[in-house]
């Protein structure tokens, strides 16, 4: 219970794409599109929910993630 509260402390995640989707699997391309990322150096701010964290985990090698409190 305590661990879950610590993970959920940030209300938003800022996701920045740092690597291209060229040469990646179609599923990874769809995850990037689902997050709203359009190419390298594009940024989006998404809710810190299990669904978005799972999407980020699938493309963690292509993005940088930062917690932001809004």
What does this structure look like?
The chain has 70 residues and is α+β, with helices and mostly antiparallel strands. It is 36% helix and 24% strand. It has helices at 2-7, 26-35, 50-58; strands at residues 12-17, 43-47, 63-68.
Strand-helix topology:
Elements: H1 2-7, E1 12-17, H2 26-35, E2 43-47, H3 50-58, E3 63-68
Helix pairs in contact: 2-3
Task: Produce a short descriptive summary.
The protein has 70 residues and is α+β, with helices and mostly antiparallel strands. It is 36% helix and 24% strand.
Name the beta content range: 15-25%
Q: What is the 3D shape?
A: globular
C-alpha-based Rg, rounded: 12 Å
Low-confidence stretches: none
- Element-by-element helix/strand order: HEHEHE
Helix content: 25-40%
In whole angstroms, the N-to-C terminal distance is 23 Å
What is the mean predicted local confidence, pLDDT? 90
Q: Which structural class is indicated by helix and strand composition? A: alpha+beta
How many individual β-strands? Answer: 3
Main sheet: strand order:
2-1-3
Q: What's the total helix number?
A: 3
Q: Biggest sheet, in brief?
A: 3 strands, antiparallel
């Amino acid at each position: 219970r305590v661990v879950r509260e610590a993970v959920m402390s940030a209300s938003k995640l800022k996701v920045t794409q740092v690597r291209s989707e060229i040469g990646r699997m179609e599923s990874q391309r769809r995850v990037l599109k689902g997050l709203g990322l359009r190419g390298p150096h594009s940024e989006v701010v998404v809710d810190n929910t299990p669904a978005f964290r799972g999407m980020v985990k699938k493309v963690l090698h292509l993005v940088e993630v930062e917690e932001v409190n809004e």
